[in-house]
Amino acid sequence: MIEHITPILVGTLGAATPLVFAGLGELVAEKSGVINLGVEGMMLIGAIAAFAAAVATDGNLVVGLSIGALAGALAALPFAILTLSLGANQAASGLATTIFGVGLSAFIGQSFVSYSLPGVKPLAIPILSDIPVIGPVLFHQDIVVYLSFATFAVLSWVLAKTRIGLVLRAVGESPESAHAIGYPVMAIRYGAVLFGGAMAGIAGAYLSVVYTPLWVQNMTAGRGWIAVALVVFATWKPGRLMLGAYLFGGVTILQLHAQGLGIPISSHFLSALPYIATIVVLVLISRDRKLLQLNLPASLGKSFIAGG
After folding, report:
1. Which residues cross the membrane (predicted)?
2. CA dist 293 → 163, 288, 289 (Å)
């Protein structure tokens, strides 16, 4: 049984890593009061930009991730200008960002369909990687998976224990009050949105440079939407978001292993399982209105114009 469980758990962490990065970035943006539905598009732009950069540098991972993060942030910039400076509807602008990202990545990606990258080999941590079951799962992963652990730890600490986290939450709860006591609400929201874009870009870069590693049109396959749903599922808490990402990553990997385990279920149903799970979880979470209202940033989705 263990010989089946271990590869499933190992694969779960890899499958969940894009969701962790994209979800944490969206969580920060929403903590500031901005909901960005353009995560899918930003992931795709980050994916093709990172892949093109990696191809040009013989598979350099650092360059690929850096360019992916930069491309994701640049993709988020028009959304930020529209919604924050011009007061446009956040939902409509986010959807437009996704549509733009899908189209732009497909156009640029036409030149890279025939390319592939060597990928990134897992990095085994001495001694710890030899622990039965836990060792191969937690301590024999690629470097970007370890980076996701570090990002989660740092971000959780910043949000819960630092002045930056306190100010971010204050802006998300009441931008008018934050502005009245001297906090630069617009600058903070711009920073949060661009950070979310950079994280989405890293998520896309991981898919194209490490996880696959090649370019396929629409390769995110709805992961951006799942990342947005994870923020609600987690009720805007990083720890729950991390657990949710691994839950959905596990469902994704399980559907790949199911037929090998002899489970007599249609492959089409198994392929749809991660998205079915997303819908079911959101329905269950939405039933607990008190929990949502308790953790929902009060100004989420509402425009703020200084002096308006």
Report:
1. 6-25, 37-56, 62-84, 91-113, 143-160, 187-209, 215-234, 241-259, 265-285
2. 24, 9, 6
Express each pLDDT in 81-130 by its tens digit: 999 999 999 999 999 999 999 999 999 999 998 888 988 888 888 888 88
| Cα end-to-end span (Å), the chain | 63
Select from 3, 1, 31, 9 the least CA-distant residue to 297.
31
Top pLDDT among 140 and 165 is at 165
- Domain 2-295 sits in CATH at 1.10.3470
Residue corresponding to tokens 């995560």? 39
Q: What is the DSSP letter of 299?
A: T
Distance CA 134, CA 127 (A): 12
Q: What is the pLDDT of residues 27-45, one digit of tens each?
A: 999 999 999 999 999 999 9
Ramachandran assignment for 193, one of left (phi > 0), alpha (psi -120 to 50 degrees), beta (any other): alpha
Q: Report pLDDT digits (tens) over 257-290.
A: 776 666 677 767 777 777 787 777 777 766 767 7
Residue 262: per-residue pLDDT: 67
The answer to whether 160 and 31 are in contact (CB under 8 A) is no
Q: What share of the chain is helix, strand, coil (3-state, %, to 5)?
A: 75, 0, 25
The total of other beta-carbon atoms located within 10 Å of residue 221's CB is 15
Phi and psi torsions of 162, nearest 5°: -120, 165
Q: How far apart are CA 65 and CA 270, in angstroms?
A: 31
d(CA 46, CA 28): 18
* pTM (2 d.p.): 0.93
Q: Is 141 helix (H, G, I), strand (E, B) or coil?
A: strand
HSE-up (13 A, CA, CB side) for residue 240: 13
297 in Cβ contact with 173 (< 8 Å):
yes
